[in-house]
Write a structure and sequence with these properties.
Helix content is 44%, strand content 14%. It has 25 helices and 20 strands. Helix 1 crosses helix 4, helix 17 crosses helix 23 and helix 21 crosses helix 22.
């Protein structure tokens, strides 16, 4: 059947399915009738067209530059069947050939132009070119025009303008990250078991330096750089920043640098998720459920926050039973176990019984609930990594629905897919884009950013060179042709003289697509584009970094400043925010504590898939993070924390972080509390001390040692009469655990009520 009949046949199938919706199956007679309607010639094709035409009055096709020849053949067959019919629908094709970046799907930007000519000839269509953007600031547009208007092969480009004529903008080109000096040629063979490749180690060093530059620049931007929102200015947030890379190889180093700097981020790179500590813990647990003889996986799971077993617990477990038996057998045969291992045995035994019966997602959901996964990791992770860890845990369970659309016949199949995702973490996966977050930097490939925009865009690894690779199939399908003119396989790299022109045509199209990718990357930035890269000693062609550098020099008309060490070549400027440093306001101490509580409890709870945290839980998390930032300064003489750092650790906006920081300093200076936070008045202090009591890992907010006593303290935003008994029981448990460790010392315990600015001794 032809493409037109097939297209209309799909519509008839849908209509037929609706008619049969009240029946469980289509019998043979129904199927025979349907096949007859589809396959008996042009009259039936015309009938199907008429049925479809009755439904369609206006046809809009967006992103048409990503159309492939087969799609265009089907569409053209449908439209051509109308002939001069006056009832034919209106057609609007929307697209930008400069954004055609899906050649791996056989998308052909030439089809956009061919379709336009066909519609002009057959349907008297009108061409409406638009070269005005509503996204980019003028300085971004200047750089785009200077770059692409001077590319001799980029004939489809026309200079652009912007309606945002008053929007401040800036393009920054940072110096390339250099590695070590080029090593001398080797005169002896390298022992691969003892020596790493110098080239690989040197490239890793360059990527780490580039990643550190990006993290430092983000820290400088957030809270300090002014961004325009409507007619008002506001400080930049983490959620305003998007980091793009042509290849995925640069992303792991950037993720590590952001994590070390306490910068929250989200990434679509599944390999990055699966390499996190929390994902590895869950992977180890699942691996043990699949292979019960895997002692290493069981030990990993037991040591993780899922169960909290100590080194002493694992050593004792290793000594139970006869040599050679599995650790699970030791765990099952033990007459007496520590509370942490007893809990682990009870839970894991129940999960093993249902592991082969429940769908993977349902099993994971049960594990998350029964093992209290999210609360335990919230307690175990440092404050500035807590939110990222919880997001990763949510993303891990979502993988059970995302991979293979959730169709997993068994846990082993799920493990195999996770292994494949880890092995292919550096491969291109163009369609993935992380969920936008107001308080997190987004990391993705340029392909993943298609259709998105961001006030600030980092184009990382811009000196990596082309990502093109020769396809194993060679297809020549001109956009005006109804069928391919050539199809062959390229085996072993042999081309032959007859195919050389076709291969050259493919390479020229690939080179144009590389420019399209660069165009997409640059135009994602609304106000600030930051370009970074690493030294590439093996580069054989000009890349994005060199093109952007040439464009900026062109804008300066041969008067461009030289790249100074550690400073970028820039075009344009962005205003700086006048951020008032956190200080002590002229308010009473009690009012300061009240301000702190009001600021915290005004934050709405963030919804999660399971039981969402209450406002009190969020308040406690944010309160502890801010107090910890201040105590790092007072206890250890560290520099005063930056507002951006506090915002990252507490998971709040910059405005709220400033308020929290100011109020926290005032609260800690209250007369009734000062002796616990002034280093001159105590011997030493420890924050967030883990205490094992009754088999559970608990965390005391602060333990302060004086010459005459040891105090264990717990912060409470507000203590009511109804809550006081439960709080007393909690802090008493801490006190008894410390008394067992510090025999002969006086142990005292207290609740710090920040609302009242008082200490309640228990």
């Amino acid at each position: 059947i032809n493409a037109a009949a097939f297209t209309c046949g799909v519509a008839l199938l849908r209509e037929f399915a609706q008619v049969k919706s009240d029946r469980r199956a289509i019998d043979f007679t129904d199927a025979e009738w349907l096949a007859t309607r589809l396959l008996t010639g042009e009259e039936h094709a015309a009938y199907l067209h008429a049925r479809l035409d009755a439904r369609v009055r206006h046809l809009l096709l967006d992103e048409f530059q990503d159309t492939n020849p087969m799609q265009w053949a089907a569409l053209k067959g449908w439209l051509a069947a109308y002939g001069s019919d006056h009832a034919r629908p209106s057609v609007l094709l929307v697209g930008d050939p400069k954004q055609s970046i899906y050649r791996f799907r056989r998308a052909d930007a030439r089809i956009f132009e061919a379709a336009g000519h066909w519609l002009q000839d057959q349907w008297q269509a009108v061409h409406l070119p638009l070269n005005t953007t509503r996204r980019n600031a003028p300085h971004i547009v200047d750089a785009v025009n200077a770059l692409f208007s001077n590319e001799p092969t980029y004939t489809r480009f026309q200079n652009q303008t912007t309606v945002l004529k008053d929007l401040p903008g800036r393009v920054e080109l940072w110096p390339l990250a250099l590695g070590s000096e080029k090593p001398e040629p080797r005169t002896t063979l390298r022992n691969p078991l003892l020596e790493a490749r110098l080239e690989a180690a040197d490239m890793r060093l360059r990527r780490e330096r580039e990643a550190q530059l990006i993290a430092d620049r983000i820290t400088q931007l957030v809270g300090r750089t002014a961004l325009r929102e409507g007619k008002a200015e506001r400080p930049a947030h983490y959620g305003d920043i998007m980091i793009l890379s042509r290849k995925r190889g640069a992303l792991p180093a950037i993720e590590a640098a952001l994590r070390a700097a306490g910068i929250p981020f989200v990434t679509a790179r599944q390999g990055g998720l699966l390499e996190t500590i929390e994902a590895r813990d869950l992977y180890a647990l699942i691996e043990f459920l699949v292979t019960p003889a895997n002692d290493l996986a069981l030990a990993h799971a037991l040591k993780s926050p899922l169960f909290g077993a100590s080194d002493a617990d694992l050593i004792a477990l290793a000594g139970i039973g006869e040599p050679g038996i599995t650790w699970w057998a030791r765990l099952s045969n033990a007459l007496q176990l520590p509370p942490s291992l007893a809990r682990a045995h009870r839970l894991i035994a129940a999960w093993r019984e249902v592991a082969g019966l429940l769908p993977v997602h349902d099993l994971l959901d049960r594990i998350y609930h029964e093992a209290e996964v999210l609360p335990r990791y919230a307690h175990a992770m440092p404050a500035h990594l807590r939110e990222q860890a919880l997001s990763n845990l949510e993303a891990f369970i979502a993988l059970a629905l995302q991979l293979e659309a959730g169709r997993f016949p068994s846990l082993p199949r799920f493990l195999d897919d996770l292994k494949s995702a880890r092995r292919g973490e550096l491969n291109e996966s163009p369609d993935e884009a992380p969920t936008a977050s107001h308080e997190a930097v987004r990391l993705m490939t340029v392909h993943g950013s298609k259709g998105l925009e961001s006030p600030v865009v980092f184009l990382a690894d811009a000196n990596a060179g082309s990502a093109r690779g020769r396809n194993s199939t060679l297809i020549s399908w001109p956009p005006e042709a109804d069928a391919p003119e050539h199809f062959s396989l390229i085996i072993g790299g042999a081309i032959g003289a007859a195919r050389e022109p076709l291969v050259a045509e493919e390479e020229a199209a690939d080179a144009i697509e590389e420019l399209n990718v660069l165009y997409v990357a640059m135009t994602r930035a609304k106000q600030l584009l930051v370009v970074t890269g690493v030294e590439n000693r093996n580069a054989k062609e000009e890349g994005a970094y060199q093109r952007i550098a040439r464009a900026l020099h062109h804008l300066y008309e041969s008067q461009a400043p030289e790249l100074e060490p550690g400073m970028p070549l820039a075009w344009g400027s962005l205003p700086e925010m006048q951020v008032q440093a956190p200080g002590v306001a002229a308010t009473s101490a009690t009012q300061a504590a009240s301000d702190l509580l009001s600021a915290v409890f005004d934050v709405p709870p963030v919804g999660t898939r399971r039981a969402p945290p209450t406002a009190a839980m969020l308040a406690g998390t944010q309160l502890h993070a801010v107090l910890q930032a201040v105590l790092d300064e007072t206890d250890f003489g560290r520099k005063a924390p930056e507002v951006a750092e506090v915002a990252a650790r507490a998971g709040t906006s910059l405005h709220l972080a400033m308020q929290l920081l100011r109020s926290a300093r005032q609260a800690l200076a209250l007369p009734a509390l000062a002796r616990f936070f002034d280093p001159a008045q105590f011997v030493r202090a420890v924050n967030e001390l883990e205490i094992i009591a009754d088999g559970e890992v608990k965390r005391a907010d602060r333990v302060v040692e004086f010459s005459d006593a040891l105090w264990v303290l717990d912060y409470k935003a507000r203590v009511t009469d109804e809550e006081l008994p439960a709080y007393r029981m909690q802090i008493t448990g801490y006190k008894e655990a410390l008394a067992a460790i510090h025999a002969g010392r006086e142990i005292r315990a207290g609740l710090i009520d920040l609302a009242a600015g008082s200490l309640i001794e228990c």
